[in-house]
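Researcher: Re-running this chain for the archive, since the previous output was lost when a drive failed. Same request as before.
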Amino acid sequence: MKLKRIIQKLNLKPLPNYQLVYLIVLLGFFRLLGFKYDNDFWFTINQGRYVLEHSFPTIAINSIHNINFIFQSWGTGTLFYIIYNIFELYGMAFLLIIVSLLTMFFFYKLCFLISNNKRGALLNTIIVMVLYSFFVVTRPHIFTVLNLVIMLYLLESYVRKNNVKYLFWLPLIGVLQINMHGIYFIILFIITIPYVINSFRFKIFNIESKGYKKKPLFIALFCMLLTGFINPYGYKTVIYGFMTYQSNSLFNNSIEELLALNFHNLTDKLFIIVIITTYVLHFSKLKEKPVRYTLLLLGTSYLAFDALKSFYLFLFCSLFPLVLLFKKEKNDYDKVYSKNYHLFHLMFTIVLCISCLFVINKPTNPDIVTFIDYLDKEVTNKEEIKLFTDYIDGSYAEYRGYNCYLDPRGEIFLISYNKKEDIFEEYDKVLNFKINYKDFIDKYHFDYMLVRNESELGYLMKSDAYKYINVKEDKIHTLYKLNKE
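Model: Regenerated structure tokens:
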């Protein structure tokens, strides 16, 4: 009661934003209970290190293949490397929390902007945060999501407040996006199309668009498009997505995040239920449906069904209009500080401290670290070593300085991108016995082969190691060394 009286005397207005921050941080730390570095993290910081020590790479570094390469997320790679090099796990966990906080803060502002309902905006934000937690990993897309939410907030602010000052920030969003995660620059630009269409006045059947000022919007978006060329690789980064994600059924069906949503696992079922529920609420319950909201729903739901990794685009583009289901409310600041408010802060602090203990004690190294440590003791010159790794294990091995056969940069191993050889298809043929594994080995003459025991190649090597000898193994991997005798 004393605190409440002091606040009243100071004329402070406690906003739900504080509750929002606490809830999001709490949810974030629960997400980090299982925190570990994403597999892509290792090649991302490896390339970031190369940029800082040398220059922007044009050839795939730490690969045995001499193929062209564009580091389209160089900004993320350098930032990740600097933070990891200084603070390691603590720094990366803190970065994820900060970026997630900023993302959810702007999403809350977006929801409140269109609804003027703090409780509805808070509830909508928490729901999205829980679903988005599946995607909060050490990858460049965390900055894409942040840029996306800020862009939506700026566009909605322009439309609703009729103030062009919000459009001034769009080119900056473009510069950040093209350098932090360039492959999604075009995607962000495409997401602005519903706002362009909605700027025209028209009526088709029951679909009506009242329109708004087009000229400032067109100029801002044109400037944003031009900023796509402000990067070390110029136009090549802008068209990177078209170069890499062309139709390739083998590639798309081999990468989990590129698989279409289906009912085969629990996570996909949850996401499909969310999409269906959103459609039902949007078309049956939502009274105010500007054309742009419907177009965002249709477009991003298609992307989500097409590839699992695009579900977060659906989350942030299609769920914020649902806050309009809540009625506008009057400002009632006295109800914010309830009798349980201080208890909430106490519980938050306790859980946060316990969560920190769990976070910092979680193992973060890949399961091949002992094999790489072994190689470090055996090898005198890493640059002369050819190491076979599969799609999963190449990232960490390359970070440790070895030149590998394959790594998670899957798209660069497609002939549609490198214009040289379809290495990804070759790897698949080896696994499916369409290429004799001995001919494959003779082609590359690997010095070492790090093979997964449960893979097809692992079974073949167990029965006949050909020119290799087993030097180290565990339940998951076996390391073979070329027998030069």
